[in-house]
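Course assignment 3, question 2. Fill in each field.
Student: A.L.
Task: Predict the tertiary structure for the chain below.
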Amino acid sequence: EAIHPDAATALAEAGFDVVQTRHSPPFDDLAHVAADAVVLGVRSRTPVDARLLEACPSLLAVGAFCVGTEQIDLTACRRRGVAVFNAPYSNTRSVVELALGEMIMLLRGVFGRSNDLHAGKWTKSADGCREIRGKRLGIVGYGSIGSQLSVLAEALGMDVVYYDIAEKLSLGNAKKVPFEELLATSDVVSLHVDGRPGNRGFFGEREIGMMKPGAVLLNLSRGFVVDLDALARALMSKHLAGVAIDVFLHEPAANGDPFDCPLQGLPNVILTPHIGGSTEEAQQNIGRFVTGRLLDYLRLGSTSASVNLPVVHPPRRKEGHRIAHLHDNVPGMLARLNDTFARRGINITGQHLDTRGDVGYAIVDFESDEAPALAADVAALPGTIFSRLVY
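Answer field:
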């Protein structure tokens, strides 16, 4: 689904017949085109659930060519032996740069003055125009995006504080503070929380009311985090001086579709169509990273960076064969697997194993002329979720 040309080229050069679609297709269309797919590549709006997995029995892996995986049923994929890979860090710089630009534009009131000039009205004034130097930035969510924003904002002269539910290493001079203190003292509040269900409706009337009068708010995280109606009221009452929103609860399915939002038409509001990570560089990085992980999985059995399977990253052996075995994480499973090799008199030359919750994943290297027959024996073991002869 709308992957970068470099990713499509790499997959094609690896021998895949690559079928692409520009936008997120309806379920029936996707189920039809992916019915015999080995790999499915999706973006953030395409759901991958148990029903779709049932319609795609040949599927080995899903590549999420985006940051989040909320659209994918990771448990259903794991129980069917489908590995899922995403690109959690490939577009962080793009999001951070947009956030920094929006802070500057909002504090300077640039868009209002630009609109005046487009309308033929000259309004040169310093009223309401502020530098970001010396202002306090409050970052809610100090992950890969929030922490990078922290470093760059401090380099521009901002005083940075942050709040996160987990303990994180503070970078530079950034300080972790209580959530209430962050809201009450920050000139700019930037939200960078993840998509967990607990963050739904996280920032509403109460939190907006706790913000410092005249502050600005940015949300480049998830559309369901902020109450936009409450935000509109705060702008109209002049409690907040500006807002930048890049993500929305209800987003159009395709370019050109109608869009409606309670913030439209309000002064000093920047609305962008979910483009925080949409730069040419970010899409290229995402395409290369996810494609690399998919090819490593298919060629080597490596689950490095998988979000739903145990992580095993074995080196490639120049000789012999390799079996990948996903199984129920129960006592005696590895013994039964090894016994299958022993019964055929096959020596194991290398073995790698890890577990994750209710499943275990083993990579077994061996040398034998009986590889297909052995693979069939391994696949028939009780407790096997998925097994394949990698090479």
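Instructor remarks: The chain has 13 helices and 14 strands. The mean pLDDT is 96.
Grade: pending
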